[in-house]
Amino acid sequence: MAMALTCIAGPINSAAAQAAEPVRIERDGLKLELASMDRDQVRAFFLARGFPPKDAEHVAQTACLYRSAIGSAFTLPQAPSVSVALSDWQVTPAGGKPQATKVREHWEGAWKEREVPQDAATAFYWSLFPTEQTFAPTDYNWGFLTFGLASGTLFDLAIFWRTDGTEHTAKIEGLQCAQ
Amino acid sequence: MRAVKPSFFISRRALLAGAGASLALHAAIPTALAASPMLMQAIAGKPLAPDFTLPDLDGNAVRFASHKGQVVLVNFWATWCPPCRAEIPSMERAWQKLEDAGVAMLAIHVGGGGDRIWEFLAEFNVTFPVLIDRSSAVSKAWQTIGLPTTFIADAEGRKVFRAIGGREWDHPDLIANILAVRG
Q1: In a domain, B137, yes or no
Q2: How many domains in chain B?
Q3: Between A and B, how many CB-CB pairs are < 8 A?
């Protein structure tokens, strides 16, 4: 059952301001922080992982990459687990229709098609936030989220998570892919 | 309005440190971690951990099963993973306490890394064994989903505890829990 929606609208006056201030949520057992990565950072990270320049550029131009840390806000050992499935999340670009986020499985296919070196593809896989994960109290994970939108796109993000079978949702408004 | 909470996030600077191995680590994680209780999740049914043989940094083959009879801390990590970088110093301090108590430690680098791994280990004066899981097949066989993930295996090679995300591994609670696995 879906819980009441919480709208967390950040300032959208500039992408620079947004990059400086991560979005933070701590509610109903979920702890989440995310922030846009600018394209130079994205290129630097993936070039250092062995990506050919054209493929690092492909990520920088098309992934709309955010760094994230997501996990359980619970700190008592007997607290319920928190489950996150990125495949449930929805991205809605300004004036557009809701769409799914790009998860590990999408990129695995993309890198095979583009014949990216295996070491680079392996690093990409592990640098993304897992598609599905269940967190015990205090557990968290780090990883990139990719929304698959063009640079500069404004969008809203609907996130979903579960605690012991109860569904929770929140909407983060006014995000923007790095320009 | 955005909520403002104590951060468990990774600083932009820490991430860039991971982009180039020669840069120093300045992560925001340890402060937040120190404020949290240090928990590990007991694994239901204590499943037998998959055996593996992986090369160490000198190319020597190391087999997990050869540690039978010992409690083993198995950590999956990567040089470019900010929380992995943040927890490595505490893991080295833990190793100083656990090695003498007969506990083994295997830190498994996920993916290739080459010289960056050497540079990283030198930067943090790491002395515990590091293995390379270049294809990440062992990481997946152990049901690791994200990095870092750490397992504690008992003397029979069964997975008894799991910790997802970084920890302060020399925290007294964690050391006590690991030593208690010896029975």
Answers
A1: yes
A2: 1
A3: 121
